[in-house]
Amino acid sequence: MSSGTEKKAYKGQSITVTFxxxxxxxxxxxxRGLPEVFDPGKRPWIRPDGAEAxxxxxxxxxxxxxxxxxxxxxxxxxxxxRPT
Length: 84
Prior knowledge:
Layout: E1 8-11, E2 15-19, H1 29-33, H2 53-61, E3 68-72
Antiparallel strand pairs: 1-2, 2-3
């Protein structure tokens, strides 16, 4: 049984993006910010290697709900701009 709080990880070479569907408000900041990475019409819908890690991290930090988060492959983790 799923608790609805599961995060799904999308691993790239330089960055891993996680997505928690339950928190998503569908503001589409991700899709507008990097459509080459975030494409809800494709599977997987997040392709972290579609952009440089720094740019992708910038777009992920704009997620208003915190449904998207990231971790850099070198061990650097996101410093949230918003409350968690």
